[in-house]
Amino acid sequence: MQPSDVLPLYDRVSPDWARTRSRTLFEKRWLDRMLGLAPRARGARRVLDLGCGTGTPIARYLTERGARVTGVDGAASMVEAFAAALPDAEAVHADMRGLDLGETFDAVLAWNSFFHLDAADQRAMFDVFARHCGPRAALMFTSGHMAGTAIGEVAGEPVFHASLDPDEYRALLDAAGFEVVSYVAEDPDCAGHTVWLARHRAA
């Protein structure tokens, strides 16, 4: 299993993934924190969901909370399911690596997606994050809790994961213009996810 296998895998197993994906919304507390941190100058908060999957339950919850969500996924079948589930949201079929939508958002989210990239691509993503963040925008992503690679499972098939060291994530965030608001390794209240929440310093 290589990083290049991840998007074809998700494209292939999208129906099985959607059927087995937890609907308990164990992420709710973190999603609420992200929305609370995101600025709201006028109208609805705009959220960029990188690796959006089918949109359920996360993008659906954000939409129910009044956010305008743009979902991006490199797996075409995931984007199709996202568009069907959330017809009022924008769905974009694109690889997050090197993404440039030409617009900024109040929050950027990469939940259980960013960690499928290899180390070099993860380092390059911090410019992508910054490019899509408006002034004081929130950024939230999940990672591993220590440097290394691992093979997980999705829909009964192996899938690649990687993580940098937490100190390197801190340095990359700082260099890209972000301040860390909260970091919890293997959060027991969030199904063991390691979560980063940061805010863009740009005025």
TrEMBL record:
<keyword id="KW-0489">Methyltransferase</keyword>
<dbReference type="Pfam" id="PF13649">
    <property type="entry name" value="Methyltransf_25"/>
</dbReference>
<protein>
    <submittedName>
        <fullName>Putative methyltransferase</fullName>
    </submittedName>
</protein>
<dbReference type="InterPro" id="IPR029063">
    <property type="entry name" value="SAM-dependent_MTases_sf"/>
</dbReference>
<keyword id="KW-0808">Transferase</keyword>
<dbReference type="GO" id="GO:0008168">
    <property type="term" value="F:methyltransferase activity"/>
</dbReference>
<dbReference type="InterPro" id="IPR041698">
    <property type="entry name" value="Methyltransf_25"/>
</dbReference>
<feature type="domain" description="Methyltransferase">
    <location>
        <begin position="47"/>
        <end position="135"/>
    </location>
</feature>
<dbReference type="GO" id="GO:0032259">
    <property type="term" value="P:methylation"/>
</dbReference>
